[in-house]
């Protein structure tokens, strides 16, 4: 069942809201906390007679490290809302960054065209769901014997994940190869609300369509 | 040191000026965007310019500004400060230059010592990369052999070290008293041994090779 035009429009609006929230985190709390980290540095440099006061300096260290943790957590929340790189540089750079960050063995082939906040956001998170499913954590838990098999599988020419994006007839078309066919459901969950779809087009190939705004 | 600042966030900009002054540096220009900074620096000399990436001219004004500053003042150091450490931006930064350049997270330069050390290294000609980012970038898929740098010959390691210092092939050739052709051959061998295949650009592979080396120097596995 495909959603009506109004549903698709509301879904697209929600993607734009998510992107706005990311921007607010960046311009608001993230900036305040980064500025505080600098003010803390000034305080540390300006502390007359505090040079021998270890407890005071340890307190400042804790302060600095908590600020860094808070900023890191803000970055993670912001990335889960809408990756800033996706907005600034598009799907290609954002997906390459995602592949690097997850350590996935994947080939990214993305046409250099923009197709709107909603379609790009939905396609990005569809890929993220598939890469998370292929997370090498599973390999970490395997025995040494299994590791050798995994090594062979990951060599060039082996079943790496292929991520291909094209724009056809006002749709963003995402083709994933070398993925678990069960992930079609996760891809569909992202595509369907925008009026798109996801189909199995091969034994380990999912092709999804995301209407551009 | 004479430093210039361009940052659109007023709070962070103020904090940066205070910390730079506490560290004994002279802030010769402080602007809310790239274009006014370029205008100011056409008449005022500076040793290093500190640039936000996400600032006017949108979307990534820091990069455009850096290109213009590098063209107008090749000796001026450039330090990018950002809320995010992304390999995409590192690659673009290293396309602007591979010497006198740095990329760090905003909250990681929050002490006089770290800030001054970062600025000094850049003014001395180095590349300074946020360690976490360098680490993430060179983390190869688990199938790749570890200790790739150890597989290089002594001469190849010399070449890689000079690449990491931002030298061109010609610069490396004159330092090692060998021909440019010989250096090219070493560089090709380095790419090959580090598993940097020809499907990426030569520049990208050069950066990857340098990062692999930097990481091995830091003692990471």
TrEMBL record, chain A:
The Signal transduction histidine kinase subgroup 3 dimerisation and phosphoacceptor domain, residue ranges: 18-85
Entry keywords, A to Z: ATP-binding, Kinase, Nucleotide-binding, Phosphoprotein, Transferase, Two-component regulatory system
A single GO molecular function term of this UniProt record: kinase activity
Top-level taxon in the UniProt lineage: Bacteria
Descriptive protein name: histidine kinase
Gene3D superfamilies from the UniProt entry: 1.20.5.1930
Reactions mediated catalytically: ATP + protein L-histidine = ADP + protein N-phospho-L-histidine
From TrEMBL, chain B:
CDD domains registered for this protein in UniProt: LuxR_C_like (cd06170), REC_NarL-like (cd17535)
Residue ranges of domain HTH luxR-type in the record: 145-217
Modified residues (4-aspartylphosphate): 52
Keywords associated with the record: DNA-binding, Phosphoprotein, Transcription, Transcription regulation
InterPro entries in the record: CheY-like_superfamily, NreC/VraR/RcsB-like_REC, Sig_transdc_resp-reg_C-effctor, Sig_transdc_resp-reg_receiver, Tscrpt_reg_LuxR_C, WalR-like
Domain Response regulatory: from-to ranges: 2-123
Record-linked Pfam families: GerE, Response_reg
Highest taxon, organism lineage: Bacteria
Protein name: LuxR C-terminal-related transcriptional regulator
Organism whose genome encodes this protein: Actinomycetospora chibensis
């Amino acid at each position: 069942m495909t959603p009506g035009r109004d549903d698709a429009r509301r879904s697209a609006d929600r993607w734009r809201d998510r992107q706005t929230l990311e921007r607010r985190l960046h311009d608001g709390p993230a900036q305040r906390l980064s500025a505080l980290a600098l003010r803390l540095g000034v305080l540390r440099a300006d502390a007359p007679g505090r040079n021998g006061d270890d407890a005071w300096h340890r307190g400042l260290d804790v302060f600095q490290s908590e600020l860094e943790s808070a900023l890191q957590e803000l970055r993670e929340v912001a990335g889960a809302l809408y990756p800033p790189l996706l907005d600034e540089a598009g799907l290609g750079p954002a997906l390459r960054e995602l592949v690097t960050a997850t350590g996935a063995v994947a080939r990214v082939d993305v046409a250099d065209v923009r197709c709107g906040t909603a379609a790009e956001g939905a396609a990005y998170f569809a890929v993220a769901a598939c890469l998370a499913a292929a997370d090498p954590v599973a390999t970490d838990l395997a025995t040494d014997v299994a590791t050798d098999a995994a090594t062979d599988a990951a060599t060039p020419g082996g079943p790496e994940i292929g991520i291909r994006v094209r724009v056809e007839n006002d749709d963003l078309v995402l083709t994933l190869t070398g993925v678990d066919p069960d992930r079609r459901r996760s891809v569909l969950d992202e595509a369907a609300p925008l009026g798109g779809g996801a189909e199995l087009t091969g034994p380990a190939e999912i092709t999804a369509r995301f209407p551009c705004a | 040191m004479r430093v210039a600042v361009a940052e659109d966030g007023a709070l962070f900009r103020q904090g940066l000026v205070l910390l730079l002054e506490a560290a004994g540096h002279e802030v010769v220009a402080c602007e809310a965007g790239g274009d006014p900074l370029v205008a100011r620096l056409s008449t005022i000399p500076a040793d290093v310019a500190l640039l936000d990436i996400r600032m006017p001219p949108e979307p990534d004004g820091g990069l455009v500004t850096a290109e213009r500053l590098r063209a107008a003042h090749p000796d001026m150091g450039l330090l990018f400060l950002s809320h995010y450490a992304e390999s995409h931006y590192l690659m673009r930064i290293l396309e602007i230059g591979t010497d006198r350049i740095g990329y760090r997270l905003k909250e990681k330069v929050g002490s006089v010592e770290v800030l001054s050390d970062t600025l000094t290294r850049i003014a001395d000609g180095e590349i300074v990369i946020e360690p976490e980012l360098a680490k993430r970038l060179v983390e190869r898929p688990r199938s790749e052999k570890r200790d790739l740098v150890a597989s290089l010959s002594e001469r190849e390691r010399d070449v890689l070290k000079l690449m990491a210092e931002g030298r061109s092939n010609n610069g490396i050739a004159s330092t090692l008293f060998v021909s440019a052709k010989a250096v090219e051959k070493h560089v090709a061998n380095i790419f090959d041994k580090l598993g940097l295949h020809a499907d990426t650009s030569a520049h990208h592979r050069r950066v990857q090779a340098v990062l692999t080396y930097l990481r091995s120097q830091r003692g990471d596995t």
